[in-house]
Amino acid sequence: MTQRRSHHGSSKADDEDDVPEWVDQVMATVAAEVRRRRKELGWSAQDLADRCAEIGHPIPRNVIANMESGRRSNLPLVDVMVLAEALNTPPICLLYPVGYIEDVQRLPLQDSTSTLDALRWFTGEETDLGADDDMLRYFRAHHAAQERLRSARRDEEYARYHAQTAPNADRKAEALRSQGPRRRDGRRRRRPPAQSSRLHRGRGRHAPVPMARPNRRSRLIRERSRNQRGE
Fold first, then answer.
1. Gap between the Cα atoms of 211 and 206, Å rounded
2. Is residue 13 exposed (0-12), middle (13-18) or buried (19+ Cβ within 10 Å)?
3. For the whole prediction, is pTM greater than 0.85?
4. In the chain, where the domains are located
5. Domain 12-123 is of which CATH architecture?
6. pLDDT tens digits, 49-70
């Protein structure tokens, strides 16, 4: 952004000049990223035009060439969306190519900022959302909960498959234990530590746990009680 103050201390005219300069910068960024992505795919301008026509929004080859060379005076949003689909990249990456441009001017009359910060502003991913953004916040929380639930279901299906295809009873029991009970948010609950696992080893899943042998003192106590009863 350029703000050159005159001797009278006024920068209004220069600020007005910044607006078309910012528009040109945005268009130049999109055009450069379209050209880079097209070259990366090994496509010609005609190949890209053909792909746009297949999507359903034709963009002629000369229009693409004029855009990439900076001769095109405008760039509709619908063209950006179709070009992004044709180039197999998100539209936001044409506007804010993270990793290829370090800084961008987010809006006119503003200083440059990092491309990643500008992208997060455009997509609404900034943390300091206002009161009017409650719906976006609730949607993100709901989406995150759904992703946790899908992940839990995938883990459960994976464990169930291993239980069904287990080669022996021990492997099957281990796979069943790995499923574990689930909480409402999809996370696995903690199980209490297993007891007497050594006693079950090699005896099958439902084998009874052998009781400990009575010691010498307990036997003497029982014999004494029997003698007192006259047995």
1. 15
2. exposed
3. no
4. 12-123, 133-187
5. Orthogonal Bundle (1.10)
6. 999 999 999 999 999 999 999 8
Q: What is the pLDDT of residues 185-200, one digit of tens each?
A: 445 555 555 444 444 4
Q: What residues have CB less than 8 Å from 42, skipping those under 6 apart?
A: none
Q: Is 196 left (phi over 0), alpha (psi -120 to 50) or beta?
A: left
**Count of CB atoms situated within 10 Å of the CB of 34:** 24
As beta bridge partners, residue 182 has: 188
Indicate the residue type of 90: P
Tokens of 98: 């993270």
Cα-atom radius of gyration of the chain, to the nearest Å? Answer: 35
Burial 42-64 (b: 16+ CB within 10 A, else e): ebebeebbebbeeeeeebeeebb
Backbone dihedral angles phi then psi of residue 112, each to the nearest 5 degrees: -70, 150
* Banded pLDDT at 215 (limits 50, 70, 90): low
- Across 61-84, average pLDDT: 93
